[in-house]
Write a structure and sequence with these properties.
Blueprint: E1 3-6, E2 9-12, E3 17-23, E4 31-38, E5 45-50, E6 57-59, E7 67-72, E8 77-82, E9 91-99, E10 114-115, E11 119-124
Parallel strand pairs: 2-11
Antiparallel strand pairs: 1-3, 3-8, 4-5, 4-9, 5-6, 7-8, 9-10, 9-11
Length: about 120
Amino acid sequence: VQLQASGGGLVQAGDSLRLSCAASGRINGGYAVGWFRRAPGKEREFVSGINWSGGSTAYADSVKGRFTISRDNTNNSVYLQMNNLKPEDTAVYYCVAALNRLSWVSSEATRYRYWGQGTQVTVSS
């Protein structure tokens, strides 16, 4: 599975962005997918994830209520709708995938085997 993230950009605080992740292979056969981010000078952190069936989602506390993850298995795509963006959301966002049929979503980076190249999100104050 290869992942291609897009949709990043430069926005102002309070604006919205929608990140997209296109998978080259079929991700509807039992892949959990999600997003991580790395801000300058900070550790990589989990942002959001959705399990293989779409029945379970998870979010970092810092984005709950502002970000929404979704998946379209027909188009092998994952999306992250980001509303009310804040300067602290500035980071490179990575789309990830893991082959598992867990009923829950892991926030551990080591559980995700497949990583996209990242897309830059910059939020100005």
